[in-house]
Design brief:
- By secondary structure, the chain is of the alpha/beta class.
- Helix content is 30%, strand content 26%.
Length: 454
């Protein structure tokens, strides 16, 4: 009996890795993506850091050795580079052997020969009698026994069967900018300070400045840069967790005032973080989101023939997270699982992943905090009032948006939704007087247990 065709939603990194691995192992698959083919050919031209633990298992599916792979997809491949990172290890890691890849180049390599159906924006998915019905924005309706949601942090597939999965919005003001410089300018103003690396950063207090090379061509060098710091309360215009997606491009003067306040910066930071120059760049206000789908909900979906991988299942913050590496590992492993075990027990795949996926999220949040000189993330209440209980039995009602400074040791944060009586619990790391964990209250009441509330 021939294996069923796997329907993959999303032709990003997760979907393409899974498609490539399944195809190489003789399992038919179709990938659906909302973009046009033309848009896909020009999107995602930015750098991502890849580590050997993720990309080496993929190489046999690409029939490439490691050196050829790096020289093909590295951000500086045009000049024969191999995507060298900065001269130091990343925060919270001993890894020094990763490299900087251009995501567009990598996805172009992965996409070759795959059956990708463009202009298929999934709008609805439902299950009935062992089959899944997918409805797309172009009017097409398709049946599939196995559907894999590889459609990123805002996964439409995830929304179909995990309505209680909500983002954690970490309290950081983060801005990303993109600009291009000509090769001569780069060699004169950037190269002498970067020493052959493709990532350079500078921290001033808890404010972090990063500059990365996204791509190099004959005529230009694409630069991506990030300005980030911990949020400073409800009046902070750089941290707007309730904003719409369109709101990401609304940049207030607060950013430019803050950049000016940094004073004279050493190069190449002075060249990039110039308030007047930044006004002409493509700027976005990023939210640092994470999500970890409950194991019970994942298993429910698997029982219907619906799986989640990559950011759809366990999104990590853009800064500090290992999203690309985790996605590659997920999809290589899922392809192997399907080839070896078939599709009758898809929940078995999750059995080996739950703690690993949760560690991706925890580690990403911890690294984000360390990048900004913090011990951990903050406890914020964004959607509702929260009743905080100390071990001594005292209580405090905390209003919407409060920043809970002064909790000496937060050991558990729980929320009880009023409609479904479900308990959502996250453990927090220890710390004193600064920042540990952040929590989005779900309905009208949340309960946070702590040892002290000042």
């Amino acid at each position: 009996m021939s294996p069923p065709t796997i329907s993959i939603v999303g032709a990003g990194l997760s979907g393409l890795v899974l498609g490539r691995c399944l195809k190489q192992r003789g399992t038919p698959c179709i990938i659906f993506d909302r973009d046009t083919a033309a848009a896909a050919a020009t999107r995602y031209s930015y750098g991502i850091t890849l580590y050997p633990w993720a990309y080496r298992p993929l190489l046999r599916y690409l029939d490439l050795n490691e050196a050829t792979f790096q020289k093909t997809v590295a951000v500086d491949s045009y000049i024969g580079g191999v995507g060298r990172l900065s001269s130091h290890t990343r925060h919270g890691s001993n890894e020094t052997d990763g490299f900087r890849a251009n995501r567009r180049k990598l996805e172009k390599m992965l996409r070759e020969g795959l059956d990708v159906r463009w202009e298929h924006d999934l709008t609805e998915i439902s299950s009935e009698e062992g089959s899944n019905s997918m409805v797309f924005g172009n009017g097409q309706k398709l049946q599939a026994s196995i559907v894999v949601g590889a459609d990123g942090p805002h996964s439409q597939v995830r929304r179909a069967f995990t309505p209680n999965s909500n983002f954690t919005i970490l309290p950081y003001a983060v801005y990303n900018g993109k600009c291009r410089v000509d090769p001569k300018t780069f060699e004169d103003k950037f190269a002498p300070h970067m020493n052959g690396a493709n990532v350079i950063e500078h921290r001033i207090g808890q404010t972090l400045l990063q500059i990365t090379v996204a791509d190099r061509t004959e005529t230009s060098v694409s630069i991506s840069y990030t300005y980030s710091r911990p949020a400073r309360g409800l009046a902070d215009l750089g941290f707007t967790p309730e904003r719409s997606a369109a709101g990401a491009s609304r940049i207030t003067d607060q950013l430019f005032d803050e950049v000016r306040s940094l004073g004279v910066l050493e190069e190449p930071f002075g060249e990039v973080f110039d308030a007047e120059k930044m006004r002409t760049d493509r700027l976005l206000n990023w939210l640092m989101r994470s999500i970890s789908v409950d194991a019970a909900e994942l298993n429910t979906g698997a029982g219907r023939g619906i799986l989640l991988v990559g950011d759809a299942a366990h999104a990590t913050p853009i800064l500090g997270g290992d999203g690309a590496n985790a996605a590659i590992q997920d999809c290589v492993d899922l392809a192997e699982y399907i080839v070896q075990n078939g599709t009758s027990d898809l929940a078995g795949f999750y059995g080996t992943k739950d703690e690993t996926w949760r560690s991706y999220v925890r580690d990403g949040e911890d690294r984000l905090a360390k990048m900004h000189g913090q011990a951990g993330a903050s406890l914020w209440c964004l959607e509702t009032t929260v009743r905080v209980e100390s071990l001594s039995g005292t209580y405090a009602t905390v209003p919407i948006g409060s920043h809970l400074d002064g909790i000496e040791r937060v050991y558990e944060i729980s929320a009880r939704t009023t409609m479904e009586d479900q308990i959502h619990t996250r453990r927090a790391t220890r710390g004193t007087g600064s920042c540990w964990d952040m929590y989005n209250a779900h309905q009208s009441m949340g309960i946070a247990a702590a040892e002290d509330v000042f």
